Amino acid sequence: MTTATTTEAIYDNLSRLLSTTVPDFELRLKAELASEINRLKVEKNAVILGHNYMEPALFYSIPDYVGDSLELSRKAAQSNKDIIVFCGVKFMAETAKILNPTRKVLVPSEKAGCSLAASITAEDVRELKAQFPGVPVVTYINTYADVKAESDICCTSGNAVAVVNSLNTDKVIFIPDEYLAANVARETGKQIIYPTKDPKQRFRNDLNYQMIGWPGRCEVHEKFTVEDIANVRKQFPDVVILAHPECSPEVVAASDFSGSTTAMIKFVEKTNAPHYLMLTECSMGDNVAAANPDKEMLRLCSIRCPHMNQITLEDTLEALQKEQFEIVIDEEIRRRAYNAVERMLHIG
Ligand code: 13P
Ligand code: SF4
């Protein structure tokens, strides 16, 4: 992705993509902010990474690279800029820092958390390892550095099945997303059990299981239901439904395709269906609709991630001006977390 620096060039691009959905005065205002961000980015030798869930005006104006968690981790690993500004949530910026300890990594809002990352602590992982000794721990990238540090390997929604298969073990612990784990279990033909957060809970010896999950959920994707799908199909029988694997296994099973945010974008680009419905964060639907004006995108869109939503052009400008909010990770934790992230990057 190349980013323009003049306000006029940015405005022209935003207007071409978004003039049917965003008022003109807002596009002009956002183009001015983006122009200043892109000027500062060059001056400070910074790179901006933007997750697919960023709001459209930001998504189409300032990131040097956009993508899903896996793609952005790879871009972070390749960066040679002095500053990395991560337009995404904190665990993503932490991953960039884990891979780039000598560079300054900034996240534009301190409030950009994640319900999955908040669902598990490093102590929880230590308890799980004590309960299931010797079983490798696969940790979703949507976790904080201290949790990654307790893990054998990380995964994203784009490579979770490949990572689990790569381990070649009888059992795996897969944390913290209950639904992603169930979807991976289904795809890899494994039986899954879920411990509660009570470390004293023990399982019967005769249970047949190959995966151990955790009761964490994405507060956005857990809201989609099979009834939503049935209602949409009733009105649009030819709709193609795409679901992020953080949706429940029932929702994924009732959909036509499931994949990471980028996998869903590519699916829409490469196919020609009469209608599409994406069961994921709202802004991504707006971004895909803007890039594919010839495709009919249905909306089921009351669901904006309250964390991704925190990242605005205004905050990103301030982040670059004041070089805030800097990600700091204890070096011993970072080194151990690095092993889990790096091992994942070798797999796919
Ligand atoms: P992706 O890795 O598919 O971009 O997902 C990140 C995320 O937070 C989804 O809610
Ligand atoms: Fe976390 Fe869900 Fe928001 Fe993604 S969409 S950042 S998983 S809360």
Features of this protein?
348 residues; alpha/beta; 5-stranded parallel β-sheet; 13 strands; binds 1,3-dihydroxyacetonephosphate
The topology string of helices and strands comes to HHEHEHEHEHEHEHEHEEHEHEHEHEHH
Q: What class, by secondary structure content? A: alpha/beta
**How are the strands ordered across the major sheet?**
6-5-7-9-8
Please provide the count of β strands.
13
Sequence stretches where pLDDT stays below 50 over 5 or more residues:
none
Question: How would a textbook summarize the main sheet?
Answer: 5 strands, parallel
Q: Give the end-to-end Cα distance, rounded to a whole number of Å.
A: 22 Å
- Mean pLDDT, as a whole number? 95
**Fraction of helical residues:** 40-55%
Gyration radius, rounded: 20 Å
Strand content: 5-15%
Number of helices, counting only DSSP H or I runs of 4 residues or more: 15
Which cofactor or ligand species appear?
1,3-dihydroxyacetonephosphate, iron/sulfur cluster
Based on Cα principal axes, name the global outline: globular
